[in-house]
Design goal:
Elements (H helix, E strand, L loop, with lengths): L2 E4 L2 E4 L4 E7 L5 E8 L6 E6 L6 E3 L7 E6 L4 E6 L8 E9 L15 E2 L3 E6 L1
Parallel strand pairs: 2-11
Antiparallel strand pairs: 1-3, 3-8, 4-5, 4-9, 5-6, 7-8, 9-10, 9-11
């Protein structure tokens, strides 16, 4: 599946951004978002199951970020609110076929397709 991430940019501390991941295939896939800050290792951010019944978040983004499936548009969005400087990173969306509609995947190696990344910069 092809993935196209968009929506990154510059945001102020406490501000919001909405990342979108457009997909060439959608209904049989579970999705995740990962990020990598300069000089750091890639890390898990959020994931959603194929049916949208289950989600998982990195502890530091819980209550601030929301992952959403938009079946009508075949996109997976990451709504990011109350942004902090430590959220600055390149964000990647990822997808994998999922036969279990309620399972979320949180490891980079669980996925088989990745988008090109979109840069998010949070600054005052």
């Amino acid at each position: 599946v092809q993935l196209q991430a968009s929506g990154g940019g510059l945001a102020q501390i406490g501000g919001s951004l909405r990342l979108s991941c457009a997909t060439s295939r959608f209904s049989n896939y579970a999705f995740g978002w990962f990020r990598q800050a300069s000089g750091n290792e890639r890390e898990f951010v959020a994931a959603i199951s194929r049916k949208g019944t289950a989600t998982s978040y990195k502890d530091s983004v819980k209550g601030r970020f929301t992952i959403i499936r938009d079946d009508a548009k075949s996109t997976v969005n990451l709504q990011m609110d109350s942004l902090k400087p430590e959220d600055t990173a390149v964000y990647y969306c990822a997808a994998r076929v999922s036969f279990d509609g309620d399972t979320v995947y949180t490891e980079w190696g669980d996925f088989r397709s990745w988008g090109q990344g979109t840069l998010v910069t949070v600054s005052s």
